[in-house]
Amino acid sequence: AMACGRPCGKTPDVRIAKSGDGVRIRLNMAESHVLEALFNELQESLVVGALDPSDPVQRRLYPAGYDDAEDARSFRELTESSLRQDRSDRVDQGLAELLSGRSLRRTEVTLDADGTQRWLRVLNDLRLMFGTRLGITEDDEYGLDETAPQAQLRARYLWLTALQDLLVTTAMG
């Protein structure tokens, strides 16, 4: 059984349509719950101290900005707190929108242009987190080996990639 119920390299069942200057996102219940879990996972990783300073995800989400160790530490002290708060606020808002759009049969979220950009940034943060854990590079072939040790993590990464791509394509018209 696949983590996302089908070959995960394929486009999600999510339906995204243009809506004014934004989009309308329709998810089935399974997708809605998966996305909720992923948003929560990102939110947990944003808590101060959740990630070790040596964790590559921590370094990816909060880049040093400078080669010099002392300059990098100063830069991180100045920027990390506001970056963390901005990310956390975006995830909270996205989660609230997701949950308020949920009915007994499906989830439907309508986003304006700002909301669409916010969701794209949350999806990108999730992809950064999973992609870093997986060691994904630009040369990645975006396939899924279901027997690989990190197949579940990779399935989530590929699903998020497809969802982000669908959202960008629809938003751009």
Mind explaining what this structure looks like?
With 173 residues, the chain is mainly alpha-helical. The longest helix has 32 residues, at 69-100. 58% of the residues lie in helices and 10% in strands. It is globular and about 50 Å long.
Furnish the topology, listing elements before pairings:
Elements: E1 15-19, E2 22-28, H1 29-46, H2 56-61, H3 69-100, E3 106-111, H4 113-134, H5 151-172
Antiparallel strand pairs: 1-2, 2-3
Helix pairs in contact: 1-3, 3-4, 4-5
Number of helices: 5
Strands side by side in the biggest sheet: 1-2-3
Q: What is the averaged pLDDT score?
A: 88
SS class? mainly alpha
Q: What is the multimeric organization of the chains shown?
A: single chain
User: What is the number of strand segments?
Assistant: 3
- Uncertain runs are 1-10
What is the strand content? 5-15%
Mind telling me the C-alpha Rg? 17 Å
Distance between the termini: 34 Å
Biggest beta sheet attributes: 3 strands, antiparallel
Please state the overall shape, judged from the principal axes of the Cα atoms. globular
- Estimated helix fraction: 55-70%
Taken in chain order, the helices and strands follow as EEHHHEHH
Question: Can you tag this structure with a few keywords?
Answer:
three-stranded antiparallel β-sheet; 5 helices; globular
Summarize the structure.
With 173 residues, the chain is mainly alpha-helical. The chain contains five helices and three strands, in the order ββαααβαα.
